[in-house]
Every structure is written in structure tokens, then in C-alpha cells.
Amino acid sequence: MSDNDTGKISPIAYITAFAIVVIWGCTFVQTKLLINAGLRPDEIFLYRFLLAYILILPLAGKRLFLDNWKDELLALLLGLSGGSLYFVTENYALAYGYCYNVSLIVCLTPLITALMVGWIYPAERLNRKGVYGSLIALLGMALVVFNGNFILKLSPLGDALALAACLCWASYSLIIKNLQAKYDSMLITRKVFAYGLLTIIPFLCAKGINVGTMLNGGAVVWGNLLALGCVASMLCFLGWNWCLKKIGVVRATNFIYLNPVITMITSVLVLNERVTWMAILGAALILGGLAYIDKKRKK
To answer: How far apart are CA 230 and CA 24, in angstroms?
Structure first.
């Protein structure tokens, strides 16, 4: 179903997309806990995708390759853009840049995705009111991200990596449209995990792997890795790919606007971080912007 399709969409698809964004919003806190325990971002990616691949392998059938080398190349690009390259650029952006900058730039993903989809598929281009709704949600995200602390400093490397992560996820959403018409979500998701693991190998070879940190990490490390691998990766990637097919790339990606709100709530509950009235106002703007976008798209 296209993004501009005015047909009736099952509420289950919207509920699924919302649930996935809630889970993904919590993963920022889980990743932070694992990094504090001594794991590198690329090691976390390896463990979570390896676990997800093992879990999906018996469910996705015995088929190894897609119909032709072009489709196989697209699957490789999916594993790169939605897997290894996305996670490496996003997490290392935090290491080389400022958290506020990175969070705000990554929040541009829904708008950039909508613009890229409209450029390639003119029939699915956002109208002017849809752009206004996106900008309202983006303003809300800025307020949530800064949470009352307006400190914006330039960090060329960190900001460039954050923008690369944003473009990676937008590219993932576009590439998958070309495969979903021919293959089921289970097979595509298995390919994403497989190629994500293959494309992270060169990075791991350069940095090395400290398996002892994971083995001796205890309940905090093992619990968070299991949650990231089983739920945030295996179930959520499978569900997200299904949502992209059911409700369209732009509609589904707009749910990512909720990520800062979920991260804010999780940070308050788990890390005891402070929340200000400005962040609450931002959350309201995000919800209002999303409602405005969806209202205008239904007309």
C-alpha cells in the first residue's frame, strides 16, 4: 500500500509501529548501560544482530539467495544502511560529537525520508500542509532533546556521522520498497541481519573484540543484550518491515518523531534524569504535529 493510499488501514499496523518505536526509544538507555559496562557500540551491534539472526534462521525458510544479483545487492545495501553502517555512525557520532547535536540531527530522519520518497516517487510527495506538520513535530523534538538546555556547539565529525546515520535509515526505507513487492518480510529481515553481520566484520577486524567483557558482564549485560537481540532487533525489525509494507514508508517513518519522547520517559524512570516544562511542551508539539500530518493525509 502506498503512502498516499486513502484506503482503510488496519489499526493493528499503527499499533505495531507505535509499539516498535516505544521499544526502540528504550534502546538508547539500554545501549548506554552496556557502554558503561565496557562494551563498544560495534560489539553491541555484533551481539544483538548475531542473536537476532540465530533466532530468525529457522523461521525464514531454507532459501539462501534472492532471484537475481541485483536483488541480492539491494539486500546487501539494506544490511549496510539499516544495520552495520547505521549503528556505527549513530553510536560513534555520540563519541565524537555532542549528544544534543546528534539527537537533533538523527531526529531529521522522518522529514528527510519523506523528501527522498517524494523526490523518487512524485505521487507520494508530501503536500505543503504535510510539511508544516513535520516541522511542528521537528520543533517539538528539538525542545525534548534540549530539555531546557540550549547549548549548541559545532562538532564537524560528530555532526557528519549523525547526518550519515540519518541518511542511512532514510535509504533503508527507500531500498526496502523495491524488495517488498517480490519477497516476504521474514526473508528480507533475515537478509538484513546476515548482511549487517557481514559488513561489520571489517570494522571489528580493525578494532578487535573483547569477548571477556560480554562473558563477565553479569545480569545487566546479559539482560540488556538479550532484550536488544530478541526484541529490539529480531521482533522489531520484522515488525517494522511489515509496517513499511502495510502503511507505507512515510507514514511509518513519521512514528520515529516519538523516539525522543520515549527516550525522555525512559531516562526519567531508569536513569533519574531531569525533565523540564520545555520538554513536556515539546512532547505535546510532537503529538500535535503527528496528528496534523495524519489528518491532512487522510483528506
So the answer is: 12
